[in-house]
Amino acid sequence: MIGAIIGDIVGSRFEFSNLKETSFDLFTSECDYTDDTICTIAVADAILNKKGYQESMLEWCRKYPEPMGGYGGSFAKWIFSDNPKPYNSYGNGSAMRVSPVGWLFNRDLIADEARSSAMITHSHPEGVLGAMIVAKCVYLARSGYPKEEISNFVNDFYVYLKMPPPFSNPFDETCLNAVPVAISCFLESNSFEETIRNAILVGGDSDTIAAIAGSIAEPFFGIPDWIKESAMTYLPEDMKKIIKQFDNEKE
Questions:
Q1: What single DSSP character describes residue 62?
Q2: Domain limits at 92?
Q3: Does the predicted TM-score (pTM) go above 0.90?
């Protein structure tokens, strides 16, 4: 899941100021983790420590109530509600946080667990589908499937995947946009770093697109140590603890 967190941190400074070039520093003082990282950590914590997805999500988001960029309006209301209920969202939040499911469950359980992680908030069919597809792509990548098979799987659900340069993507916070765009950034790349750079180049909701793309690129390409180490410097100790536990469990 560190691939998603790296994408989030790198993309954080470009979310509302898209960059149309790939020659940029991955990490600067303007970067930080956002809600994408917090929610990904929450999903991992739920699985690792036998918590409910909603319980863990509320715990982490209430602990970090003001991340860089803030929370989306409906999600913020959900976090601080006395009685949180799913709100039929088809936003990209379900897909950006789901990568731990693809790592920690086998093929037979991934779809159900991805659905469960989404349904606490993103109960719209497209919100659930986005989470299920990303989790399955993570599983396929970590299981050694080639890009062609990953592409064929995704093409059963989304109309387009191939996006040759020049990339162009509007700011659209839905799964219908973010999931196929992010997967195309992975498919058109030859390394983890190139995937992240292409996810920034494509424009739109940069941190979330990079988080989704990075979550799939991590098991497929691996991540250079210097990129992992740089990303970890942005995170508080309690998040690092969950990442360490996660790494030990998936090994």
A1: H
A2: 2-250
A3: yes
